Amino acid sequence: MTVGHLERAYAQGLRAVGPAHYGPGTYAQGTSATGGIGVRGRELLSEMDRLGVILDATHLCDDSFWEALDHFHGPVWASHNNCRALVNDGRQFSDAQLEALISRGAVIGGALDAWMMVPGWVRGKTTPEEAGVTLEHLVDHIDHVCQLAGNARHSGIGTDLDGGFGREQCPQDLHTIADLPRIADLLAKRQDTTLADVARQAIHEYLEAQEDLVNSRSRLGRTVMSRMDAMHNQLLRQLLHLSKLLLAAVIVLLSEQGIDANQVVKRVTTVARQPALDKILEIGK
Hints:
CATH architecture of the largest domain: Alpha-Beta Barrel
Number of strands: 5
Structural class: mainly alpha
Oligomer: single chain
Shape: globular
Strand order of the largest sheet: 1-2-3
Order of helices and strands: HEHEHEHEHHHEHHHHH
């Protein structure tokens, strides 16, 4: 694979790239490694800039992180990353790194890998019960990002639940994906978290993804985009369906708490990029 394959991958639906994982890499250095992105990394970032591909800063080592942000001028996020201030490990981001991401408008997705949630975890030995790790610890990381940002607009739920580990390395109160909505309950109990922020947290990533898909239609030429129209419309309909389901869950949650959910959700969706949502609703009809 070369940088020249990126446009083809973009045409097939690729929207975000993480240049590194663990150890040394071709385009950047990852977790537990050191060093910058080098010439090939700068070439990759330049092509990502041209296409409008999102840079996923997750797993970049400190050297590569700062060099990547210096050379990349497009959208950035950290899809599954926690806070070094709470768990002192190079896999997490320092406050300076989180603030740099926030200044670029990034969303940081909290990870549910137990060793990233609490300090002192020994992989393969520590158990969730021994460490007492729960979803509350993820909320600590989410809240830390919110405190740095001064709002909830830069915090998401990344999970990292891709099959690389099971319940032996998850919060002890997370049994299935159906338990994730409990995060909203835990956030609502924080005194400095408003219900509007809780609702926005729940639907933020879907609305952002929808807007990115809508905006990406104008980033390539007519010939390429004409081939992508059918695929885009299908993806937009799927995202719209997911958004409706999640929004319904938020309404139920707030109603159970005796809150006028419709007013809260109306406020949230007004703030959360209504123009993009209008475009998607038109396509989804």
